[in-house]
Design brief:
Peroxisomal Thiolase, Chain A, domain 1, 11 helices, 13 strands, binds oxa(dethia)-CoA, 336 residues, 4-stranded mixed sheet, 23% strand, single chain, 5-stranded mixed sheet, alpha/beta, 2 domains
Length: 336
Amino acid sequence: MYNSRFAGLGYYVPENVVTNDDLSKVMDTSDEWIQERTGIKERRHVIKGEETTMTMGVKAAEQAIERSGLDKDEIDFIVFATLSPDYYFPGPGVMVQKELGLKRTVGALDVRNQCSGFVYAVSVADQYIKTGMYKNILVIGSETHSPGLDFTTRGRGVSVIFGDGAGAAVLTREEDNSKGILSTHLHSEGEHAEELALIAPGMGRHWVTDIIKNNDPEETSYWPYMNGQFVFKNAVVRFSEVIMEGLKTNELSPADIDMLIPHQANLRISQFIQGKFKLSDDQVHNNIMKYGNTTAASIPIALTEAWELGKVKEGDLVVLAAFGSGFTWGSVIIRW
Ligand code: UT7
């Protein structure tokens, strides 16, 4: 069995900055409320027609491939995590393959695990590399939330939180088993599927044909719903559990962590985890202040930023952890 390691990282966010004050002009909210409850100061929104989940994913991927030192023809497989694909189907994995001009028939897999999407995608890629099936895998997390959010006061509990952006990584085979990804841990609890969900358009109870036919402005099933406090309470518990699970599997303890990259759901959640594991400010990288919650893109964006800042160095123990809709959650333990 091989290990896999991060050979290259990249990210891309749209230039269009939307501040809390900008949002307070279109709904009943305030900079004070948003910062106090979430830590967010601003987020990025795509400009319609200019950027999409796929195009941002391509930009992040180009940077990751270039930094990996690999030729794009050496990419064996693509795993693309998103909850906001350009098309209902096919997913953006195949579109990235075409746009990047990767080898004509490399496989592409789309992952639907929302905020845990990147952690799930990395875990999938790691298994393929471990078994020797593939050697170099492009993993992307990219999201375009802004076109699908309710920017009226009705939607303020959700729409102020999410932002657009993309991050990517190239995972490659590592022959030294003490280096690279040491383990990944994935969980879900489908019992709470509807606590954070976008129900329509779907082929279940909310048929697209009915929504179009009824054209009802009060129809809310096509706006994301979140039971915020319930999600928050579950997040702090599951984040802690799954980080500990990963550490214990590798006979490590919180004191061994050099860098924690938590999914950027809420600064208060990250700060709670930081306090619980007694980590200093420079052992946790947060950027939710600038980008909001970019779901599957948040970890690869934050990891790339931390790496660019020299906060992730060879030999460091790096922990990725996420929790989100599903509920799904997971962690990745890496010896960089
Ligand atoms: O990434 C996936 C996982 N997601 C998460 O982990 C998110 C977890 N949850 C949270 O981060 C928090 O629950 C939120 C930030 C979403 C909400 O914060 P909260 O402290 O739980 O607020 P709340 O939902 O209990 O709402 C408190 C009040 C309500 O008013 P009343 O009923 O007390 O009068 C809301 O209507 O704040 C109101 N409110 C707002 N006020 C101003 C909700 N959204 C806003 C807003 N601006 N944007």
